[in-house]
Amino acid sequence: MESNKQHFRHILLFYFRKGKNAVQARKKLTDVYGEGVLTVRQCQNWFAKFRSGNFDVEDAPRSGRPVEADKDAIKALVDANRRITTREIGERLNLSNSTVYGHLKGMGLTSKLDVWVPHVLTERNLCRRVDAKGVVFHQDNARPHTSLVTRQKLLQLEWDVLQHPPYSPDLAPSDYYLFRSLQNFLDGKTFTSNEDVKNHLNQFFASKDQNFYERGIMLLPERWQKVLDQNGQYII
């Protein structure tokens, strides 16, 4: 039985290196070995471990839960999605919220505007937050915004891009302005379907005029100045 487990994990590692995700890899497994081999969550946990750089497919000997393995898996999930919640991490890794939060705190991370960022910024990050100059096109370093396709399009358009300092949701209008307004709009509402969610989102965006978005952007200089005044520290 143990050899079968390791065999399945070797297969997962093979598909991980082929660029597949956990669900796709599990589909390959179940097509051959049947539905009972590994759950989706187990595959996701192993993929999180691989993303952390740990490719050991053997079970580590333990008297309790391996704390370091938990930290590696949590770090991989946060690196992949800075907006992931402690509840989502707990469900993926079968950990309690308090355990997840304790590990995140131990890794020096804190949540700013629902984004996981370092609790204490390095001197380099502090400088990068106060050295921004000039605004033409602004984005918040989300992966779709920094992808090769996006960067090629910006070059084609010959647009200058404002270099957004890392770990700075307090300097992204989408975070400190738009999403806060959206959160207030959705507060207390319940949804019964994806279509219901889409309808409410369309209603929210349709209710906002050009002035609404201009106000969020025009707050940037004021927030930059606050960062300068506080030597790069967070202003949340």
TrEMBL record:
It holds the Pfam family HTH_24. Residues 5-54 form the Mos1 transposase HTH domain. Keywords: Methyltransferase, Transferase. GO terms for biological process: DNA double-strand break processing; DNA integration; double-strand break repair via nonhomologous end joining; methylation; mitotic DNA integrity checkpoint signaling; replication fork processing. GO terms for molecular function: DNA topoisomerase binding; double-stranded DNA binding; histone H3K36 methyltransferase activity; histone H3K4 methyltransferase activity; single-stranded DNA binding; single-stranded DNA endodeoxyribonuclease activity. InterPro entries: Mos1_HTH, RNaseH_sf, Transposase-MT_Hybrid, WH-like_DNA-bd_sf. GO terms for cellular component: condensed chromosome; nucleus; site of double-strand break. Gene3D superfamilies: 1.10.10.1450, Ribonuclease H-like superfamily/Ribonuclease H, Winged helix-like DNA-binding domain superfamily/Winged helix DNA-binding domain. This is Histone-lysine N-methyltransferase SETMAR. The lineage of its organism: Eukaryota, Metazoa, Ecdysozoa, Arthropoda, Hexapoda.
